[in-house]
Amino acid sequence: MKRVEDLLKDRVAAAPDSTAVSDSSGARWSFAELDSASDDLADCLRDAGVQPNDRVLLLVENCAAAVAALHASWKVGAVVIPFNARQTEAEVARVVKHATPAVVLMTAHVSADAAAHGTRMGAKEITGAFGSLLLAKGTSDPDPILHDVAVLLYTTGTTGDPKGVMLTHSGIRFGAAASSDIRKMSPEDIVYGALPISHVFGLISVLTAACHAGTHVLIEPRFTAQKLYDAAMNGVTIIPAVPQMHALVMQYTKEQGMEKLNSPTLRYVSSGGAPLDPAWKRKAEAFYELPLQNGFGMTETSSGASGTMNTIGSPDVSVGPLTPDTEARIDVDATGGNGVDEGEVLVRGPHVMKGYYRNEAETAKALDADGWLHTGDLGKIDDEGRLYILGRSKELIIHGGFNVYPPEVEAALNDHPQVIQSAVVGRTKEGDEEVLAFVQVSDNDRPTVEELRAFIKERLTGYKRPKHIVLTTALPAAPTGKLLKHKMIATFADELP
To answer: Tens of pLDDT along 356-386?
Structure first.
C-alpha cells in the first residue's frame, strides 16, 4: 500500500534541493531537509514509545515543525490527529479521552495556546533538526482497525458523541492528487498556506497537494488580510481560501486606497466552503483580475470532490464537475429538497472516509451499504454534470412554510458595496422560524439597517428578507475563517429583540 509519507520520499528522489516549506519563524526547508527533520522527530517518537497504529495528537498552529510532525508520525506507522492549539482545554480533553493518543506534540514556538496546553500537560521540550517542540506522553494503545488510516480529523462544532473522521492513506493521496491536478500545481509555484493544517482544506488541498506536486508552501500560523496581501505581492502564485478570507483581503486593500490587488505573480485563486453569488464572484474577479475557482468538499471526502476550471467572467457559480473517479447523486427524497431535482448530495469514491473512529452509530448514519456518503448538503446536478450546493440541510430555514436558503440571503446582503460579509441563521419563534442576518461592516464606511433593507428588497422576495439585521465589525469565526453560525444568536443576544 502506498502511504502518504511516500509522497515526500518521491519528492526527495526527484528534487531534493527544491523548497518544500517556509514559515514566518524563519524556517525554510528543502524536501531533503524536511525528510531529515521528520526522520529526527520520528526517532523521538519511537523513544517515547509510539508504535504503529498508535495515535499522535498534534496541538499545533501552522509552521514547518508541524509539517515535520505529520511526516514523522506517518514514518513510525502512527495515525495523526491534527488539532488546532487554539481549542479550549475542554475541547482538547474530549479528543484525548476519545482517541487515547500515545503522545501529544505542541508547537509552542509559534503558539502561546500550544505552550499553555504543554504547561498544563506537563510536556517536555524536545529538539532536533525539526527545531523545538513540546511532547507529553500518553499510553501506547495500537488499534488494528487503523492499519490503513493516516489521519483522524475531529470535525468543527460536533456535539454529542465524538466524530473522528478516519481518512486513509490512499484516500488522502487521491485527494492530494485531485487538488494538485485541478490547480496545475508545479515546483515553480508558491502556494499560500494560511488555512490551518488541522483542517482538511489546509491539510490535504494545500499541504499534501503541494507535496504531491513538489510545490513550495509558504505557511502561516494565523490568517490576517495584511499577510495575505503581502504574500500575494511577493511571489505567491496560488491562493486557496474560504470566502471570508477573500472578503477581508478585499476590504484591507480598499482601506489602502486600491481597488485591485495587482499581484505580479498570482495565477490561481480559489474559494471553498460556501456557494458563490454571481455578483460577488464578479467583484472578486475584478479585484484579483483572475477567474475565481470554486469547489466542494468536506472532511469526510478528504477535501475536494468537485471543482471548477472556468475562465474569467464565466457566469458559472456551480462547484464544478466531479473530480475523476468521484460519483455523486441527488437524493430527492431527503428533507429540504424540492422533490424534483433538488435534495441531499450523496458522494462515493476512493477519497470517502473509512468511517467515524469508535462510533459505529454515526458511521451507519453517514455511510450506507453501497458506500454512498450522505453529506447533509442540499444540491442539484445540471445537464452538464455540474454540481450546485444550495446550502446545508440543517441550516435550511422554513419560514411561513417556505424554504429559505441562507446562502441566497447572504449573497443579496454581500452584494452591497459596504458589506464585508454576512451570516444568516434561523430562530424558532411562535411556531415559525425567523430569518436573522448578522452583517460585518467597517467602522469607517457602513450602511444603516434601513439602507440594507431597501437594498435587499429589490433582490429578495418578502419571505426571504431578514426579520432582524445586526450590524457589527466582527463575526465569530473558526481558525479557518469559516463563520460559526451556531454562535451568532448567543454572541449578539443583547442586540436581538
So the answer is: 999 999 999 999 999 999 998 889 999 999 9
Higher pLDDT, 290 or 333: 290
* Span 273-302, pLDDT tens digits: 666 778 888 999 999 999 999 999 989 999
Ranges of beta strands (E only) in 382-418 are: 387-392, 397-399, 402-404
Q: Which phi and psi (to 5°) does residue 323 adopt?
A: -70, 155
pLDDT per residue over 394-432, tens digit each?
A: 788 888 767 788 988 998 999 999 999 999 999 988 778
**Which domains occur in the chain, in start order?**
5-170 (3.40.50.980), 223-393 (3.40.50.12780), 396-495 (3.30.300.30)
pLDDT bracket for residue 109 (50, 70, 90)? very high
User: How far apart, in whole angstroms, are the C-alpha atoms of residue 32 and residue 20?
Assistant: 9
Strands 55-60 and 79-84: parallel
CA–CA dist 213, 31 (Å, integer): 12
Question: Cβ distance 83 to 59 under 8 Å?
Answer: yes
**Whole-Å CA distances, 113 to 89, 98, 153, 380:** 10, 21, 19, 42
Q: What pLDDT does residue 87 have?
A: 85
Angstrom distance (rounded) from CA 403 to CA 401:
7
How far CA 178 is from CA of 5, 324, 398, in Å, comes to 17, 8, 36
The residue assigned the cell 486557496 is: 240
Q: Of 37, 72, 77, which Cα lies nearest the Cα of 58?
A: 72
Burial class (CB in 10 A: 0-12, 13-18, 19+), 123: buried
Query: What span, in angstroms and rounded, lies between the C-alpha atoms of 488 and 486?
Result: 6
